[in-house]
TrEMBL record, chains A, B:
<keyword id="KW-0964">Secreted</keyword>
<keyword id="KW-0865">Zymogen</keyword>
<feature type="domain" description="PA">
    <location>
        <begin position="146"/>
        <end position="233"/>
    </location>
</feature>
<dbReference type="InterPro" id="IPR046450">
    <property type="entry name" value="PA_dom_sf"/>
</dbReference>
<dbReference type="GO" id="GO:0004177">
    <property type="term" value="F:aminopeptidase activity"/>
</dbReference>
<keyword id="KW-0333">Golgi apparatus</keyword>
<keyword id="KW-0862">Zinc</keyword>
<keyword id="KW-0479">Metal-binding</keyword>
<dbReference type="GO" id="GO:0043171">
    <property type="term" value="P:peptide catabolic process"/>
</dbReference>
<dbReference type="InterPro" id="IPR007484">
    <property type="entry name" value="Peptidase_M28"/>
</dbReference>
<keyword id="KW-0645">Protease</keyword>
<feature type="compositionally biased region" description="Low complexity">
    <location>
        <begin position="1"/>
        <end position="16"/>
    </location>
</feature>
<dbReference type="GO" id="GO:0006508">
    <property type="term" value="P:proteolysis"/>
</dbReference>
<dbReference type="Pfam" id="PF04389">
    <property type="entry name" value="Peptidase_M28"/>
</dbReference>
<keyword id="KW-0482">Metalloprotease</keyword>
<protein>
    <recommendedName>
        <fullName>Carboxypeptidase Q</fullName>
    </recommendedName>
</protein>
<keyword id="KW-0732">Signal</keyword>
């Protein structure tokens, strides 16, 4: 920009070098939408009542379970009753893993029961169980240091999750959960018989937390189970005293043939650009402990409630708001992948996922680049009445990750997560941990954000997703393959 | 006391009407003892190391278990090694209740498992279990309102413990625990088949809390078990929806013949008045879940550590400090009763019990009357370095209650109890909940209080206990008795 003209006769003043950019003017329709949604959230507990109903009546919703399909059917029926458009179930085949009986006990240096909770997708043990010494490591990478020393042993990965720290949000989860996801194959590489993992939580009342593991298909599959932080500490004290703990572990887990499930979808058809989409995302499956109210029943009830609130307030935006209750986030992400395959050619302008529980509203994590963040920041004050006005850079969600990886703007609802990981994947994830007014206000925050994303002007036309070219099938290499076996 | 002489010629001044009593001068020996004990507490983790050892090696210590007797033997051996005098086990016959298998499930309106934890001293169910509808009350007294409506049913006493509140210390426990202690007989009176009790805790991660019940010997004994607060809420929501929950309950609990146990005792012989006693009390038994580190392994390690600290610092007071690790506090108080029967004729000047866990040091509850409280208050500043300088009126402990009821001054150590009832009688009561420096500083606070109680001048000679006359055996009334049967 040119420098301002200066009158040399005028008294010397310092010219403003970096003037503050003018605050963009937010159109009244957004302010009005925020006011109405905030008021509506104060009046109702509908999302909570519905969540309590599915939690109590159907219970937890692991992929392959009847409860998951019953809940999906309930969601479809409910979205139809709510008057959403194009309500349908899009078929997805999902892994059907079953836990079976699980039992473990210390055999040395003491004899006592050892509570265990098998990790999702783990193989079972032989029927007679596995009896072996336990080697303790504090980080999954230490397995490589021990190498062949873990052969024939059970490896305990005793990495403690640090206590919640708001400044680190949930960034402690990623590093800590590696032992759970990778531990079995990392230990199988050196001939370990099984893996135990300290439950990924910073606060335990002798609480077990499951979650999926991921096997390296090139290595033997060995069973893996979570133990409580308390018992992990006990193993560590035994080792510190020079003792060699020995346990028996019996796990009846197995993988059945894939089962039929589906993504449950309903829409609020856009008034001007019905073929452009803003996705409100959650996952309807859960682990098979607790009732999955926090992870992620709450997210699905928020997404459904958000669409219904917009409809009831006649806040129909220009683009279509599409509610997608994804199936099988927990142990396969098959719902997210199937949605992407079926819908990648449609114009997705943004997606907002709720999969961080239903604590008090706090704000949003906004993916994409700084410019996309800057473009949304001026709307933050509209969320103040809901307590959801904190916008941070970086966000999205697992179910919409195929979409965001292809260029869609992804956002994640960010409630207070200070107790999220206390409950996550544990029997303590039950409806009583959720406050009705938190759930309803989070739903209103999602509705307002969906309204903004589906209504606002963009710089140019909506861009199609960048769908990666399918990788060519690798040439068969029969000799190399034989070597690996 | 006579009024001070007034010179009528002196200028008129207002006589002080209620002069502040002069702060009593605390003898240097107490100040010095406080200084030494505070310094010593900073240096060591001995009490914690010992507690971790017994928790890890012997585990929980229910009356009748080998672990209890092994722990008592360890305590006797340790007190001998510590150089305490007259170390001995005083035999006590204790109830031998065993839990057996326990299993329950919802049959209607849903089918799902129901985690249960049998209440201590409960009878079992018939082998095939009990199948019945569940009636929910919010307070044990509501059973009387329902009366015959509970006949043939299982009664759930769904009284929630309020969240911790410092100003109410643990006063919420007393009212809430009545359902657990009295519920079975209160419901049996009207023909109920069994009782479920909401676990007595304000903070749960699907946590079960046991504890003893007390049967009215004139009523049929029906089985009783705790359920989690989460499942209690689920029952309540079912009833609110007009549904009638129905469950199956199988409990294998039974009472075996009394087992031999004992109080473990060691002494620091008083240098001038060896036949006058200050008791340092705790209970060495625990429930058969968790490892009993908080309730009350910590109290016993504090009492042992306190005596050893005094000995090592050569702070031998005038009277004898007697460490008593009582057996069977949890389900019988047989240790407390047996001690009283054996020792009621000895001169007990005070007793200090530690049975409120090992949170950060905070202070003491002081039983007896206001004058006894006022006499100890001037010593409070000596506890500031340990953080245990808050003296409140009212205190004692269950094990020393037969002594305090007979007139002995009773005190209770009062650490921070904000998380005490989260752990109490649950599988989460494990050593990892305790900070070594809290345990050691609480031990030092007990040592200093024991030193003061055993050293200080009293107004006159020590008073014998007021032992109640044994009640005459009631005349046999064969006719009346027949009527009651
Ligand atoms: Zn989730
Ligand atoms: Zn106790």
């Amino acid at each position: 920009m040119p420098s301002p003209a200066v009158d040399p006769a005028a008294p010397s003043v310092e010219a403003p070098v970096d003037p503050e950019p003018a605050t963009p003017v937010i159109d009244d329709k957004y302010v009005e939408a925020g006011r109405k949604l905030t008021a509506m959230a104060e009046e109702d507990t509908r999302a909570y009542d519905r969540l309590a109903y599915i939690s109590d009546v159907y219970g937890h919703r692991l992929s392959g379970s009847q409860a998951l399909e019953d809940t999906i059917d309930w969601a479809l029926e409910t979205m139809r009753e709510d008057g959403l458009a194009k309500v349908r179930k899009e078929k997805v085949m999902v892994p059907h893993w079953v836990r079976g009986e699980e039992q473990a006990a210390f055999l040395a240096p003491v004899e006592r029961p050892l509570p265990v909770l098998t990790l999702g997708m783990s193989v079972g043990t032989p029927r007679r169980g596995i009896t072996a010494e336990v080697v303790v490591v504090n980080h999954v990478d230490e397995i490589d240091t021990l190498g062949e020393q873990v052969k024939g042993k059970i490896v305990l990965i005793n990495m403690a999750m640090p206590p919640y720290d708001h400044d680190h949000h949930d960034s402690f989860y990623g590093p800590t959960v590696q032992g759970r996801t990778q531990g079995a194959s990392r230990a199988a590489k050196y001939g370990a018989k099984a893996v135990l993992v300290r439950s990924v939580t910073a606060h335990s009342l002798r609480t077990l937390h499951t979650g999926t593991l991921v096997y390296d298909e090139d290595l033997p599959k060995i069973p893996a189970a979570a133990i409580t932080p308390e018992d992990a500490d006990l193993f560590a004290r035994m080792v510190a005293r020079g003792e060699t703990p020995k346990i028996r572990l019996k796990l009846g887990a197995k993988l059945l043939p894939d089962a039929e499930s589906g993504n449950a979808i309903g829409e609020l058809t856009g008034r001007e650009l019905p073929d452009e989409y803003v996705v409100l995302a959650c996952h309807i499956d859960s682990w098979d402990v607790g009732d999955g109210s926090t992870d992620d029943g709450s997210g699905c009830l928020m997404a459904m409630e958000a669409a219904l609130m917009l409809k009831e307030l006649e806040l129909i935006p220009r683009r279509t708001v599409r509610v997608v209750l994804y199936t099988n986030e927990e142990n396969g992400l098959r719902g997210g992948k199937a949605y992407f395959e079926a819908h990648a050619d449609e114009l997705h302008v943004a997606g907002l996922e709720s999969d961080s529980g239903a604590g008090a509203p706090w704000g949003f994590g906004i993916g994409g680049d700084q410019a996309q963040y800057d473009a949304l920041l001026p709307y933050a004050p509209l969320f103040e009445g809901l307590g959801a006005h904190n916008f941070t850079l970086g966000g999205g969600g697992a179910d919409i990750s195929p979409l965001t990886q292809a260029g869609m703007l992804g956002l994640g609802l960010r409630p207070d997560t200070s107790h999220y990981f206390d409950l996550h994947h544990s029997p303590a994830d039950t409806i009583d941990k959720i406050a009705p007014y938190h759930l309803e206000r989070n739903a209103a925050a999602m509705a307002l954000m969906a309204y903004i994303l589906a209504e606002r002007e963009l710089d140019g036309p909506a861009q199609p997703l960048k769908v990666p070219e399918p990788e060519p099938e690798p040439e068969p290499e029969p000799e190399a393959k034989a070597e690996n076996e």
